[in-house]
Amino acid sequence: IPGPAGGCRDAAGAADNAMEGGAQQSSLWEPPEQDGGPGERDGGEGPPEVKRSQPLFIHGSRGPRGWKGAIPSLGQGPPPKLIGEQEVGGWSHVCFCRVLSCWEGPDTPCPTSQVVKVFGEDGACRSLEASAATTARQLCETLVRRTRALHDHSWALVELHQHLALERCLEDHESVVEVQSSWAPGADSRFVFRKNFAKYELFKSNASLFPEVMVSSCLEANKSMAHSELIQNFLNSGSCPEVQGFLQLREAGRKVWKRFHFSLRRSGLYYSTKGTSKDPRHLHYFADLTESNIYYVTQGKKLYGTPTEFGFCIKPHKVRSGVKGLKLLCSEDEQSRSCWMAAFRLFKYGMQLYRNYQQAQARLSQPPWIGPTPLRSVSDNALVAMDFSGCTGRVIENPSEVLTAALEEAQAWRKKTTHRYSLPAACHSSPLSAAIHRTQPWFHGRISREDTQQLIGRQGLVDGVFLVRESQRNPKGFVLSLCHLQRIKHYLILPSEEEGRLYFTMDDGQTRFADLIQLVEFHQINRGILPCKLRHYCTCVAL
Questions:
Q1: What is the CA radius of gyration of the chain?
Q2: What is the H or E stretch that residue 260 is in?
Q3: How many CB atoms sit inside 10 A of residue 164's CB?
């Protein structure tokens, strides 16, 4: 495969193949051997030699559109394979390949596929060759292995249309090749690999995506219904909560926005031309759920003149490029927009969405590759309660004792006279302890407040999503940026020195920490002065 710098390189990820081999067999298709002899194998040790200009093909778990069969299981079939790339100056540059057509039948061992380009948040790109059956989850798992990232279900593949300022997170069961085939030739569209903590927040017990004022059943019966109860009704009977509320609608062919009352039902999305009336004479059919996708509008005010920043768009499948045919809407706040987006996904995908969540949860307990078990994230309960009151530490296993110890610890950390119980032994600060936080994935260096809000917004406005950055106003300070109730708050962390020791504090010295790592770890277990605990850290991986 010719590279952008004029050279050639074997298929990327040879080391990964060695790690993935063994107990986990992959159905790889290899092209016929060309002149120059077959690839050598040393007694079966190590991976087979991959010839240049011969990308590997992975058979998927189902055929293309039109093949009669059940919805694929996300755990079946091997993942897509990374293909040629060239390293130039430390950055990955993708080799350009000819896009092949999809294969014709499920039983035909045809070596055709499509090349899919995936971008990271830093702009770097990788190419993968995938069959028509490759799902978004399989592709994400391949990239997680390649980047050595923590394996959890929050990784997502995002469909981004830059020229339209639209983006959406692909569902785990969606065919990547099918989505790419729907793009117009030459359009500025791409796939982006990044975190999305809000992806399955819909099925979390502590979520509150459906306000009572927007659920028809609550308003008609004049009773309150918790989010968990609505979801339980959906799981038991398959009935989705009918959502209603006011939205701003952009008139077709004009830049004028008007306010209408909308209702989302199983049959589609409707709006009323007479206030909140649901009389069939006043309801107008607006959009079909099965033949459309819903997208976030990222630059609504700049491109479309939206009244607020909380715009979204319903894009019919037949609309491949251009603004014509897009159904642009705008809500009053982020909670309202999240409610409409979640309801749209429930109505369109139904129980398939919950099956995706169940399979994602099941995969967390199974190592995705052979070898040492990967590190788990803090949000996966990797932390345990410890008691350091004696000569040696011990793990607290009694839940009641854990709660009591947490309350006592929270009070102790807020008292100046009890620092000796919570802080390590007295030691003078060193350059290593002062800069050790730079090795942590939650530390993002010197990024601006605006970039921070955009990063957290892209990775999901979920309670507890956070990052730590350098302060732009205080050269020696830091900032903890935290999402709570779909709003991003910023807390200044200032260094203080006492008796030759360097501490960090967020509350004028009432609670002090030896370094930023200790500060973050404490607030992952205790809320402290924050509105919620730190649950998920924003991270960016290099592809």
A1: 26
A2: strand 257-265
A3: 23
* Sequential DSSP letters for 474-541: STT-EEEEEEETTEEEEEEEEEEEETTEEEEESSTTSSEESSHHHHHHHHHH--TTSSS---EE----
**Overall domain count for the chain:** 3
Contact (Cβ atoms closer than 8 angstroms) between residue 454 and residue 525: no
> Could you tell me if residue 302 is inside a domain?
yes
Q: pLDDT tens for residues 371-423? A: 444 434 444 445 667 777 666 667 777 777 777 777 666 555 554 433 433 34
For residue 353, give the H/E element and its range.
helix 351-364
Q: Report DSSP letters for 408-446, one per residue.
A: HHHHHHT-GGGHHHHS-S-----HHHHHGGGGSTTB--S
In angstroms, the CA 510 to CA 465 distance is: 25
Q: Is residue 78 part of a domain?
A: no
* Structure tokens given for 293: 């996708």
**Final residue in a domain of this structure, among 338, 364, 390:** 364
Phi and psi at 497, nearest 5°, equal -125, 135
In this structure, are 346 and 270 located in the same domain?
yes
Whether residues 213 and 344 share a domain: the answer is yes
Query: Can you read off the two tokens belonging to residue 305?
Result: 């003149």
Q: How far is CA 488 from CA 102, 153, 249, 342, 484, in A?
A: 44, 23, 27, 21, 6
298 shares a domain with 240? yes
Residue 18 has pLDDT above 50, yes or no: no
Q: Which amino acid appears at position 492 of this protein?
A: L
Full residue range of the structural domain in which residue 329 is found: 201-217+225-364
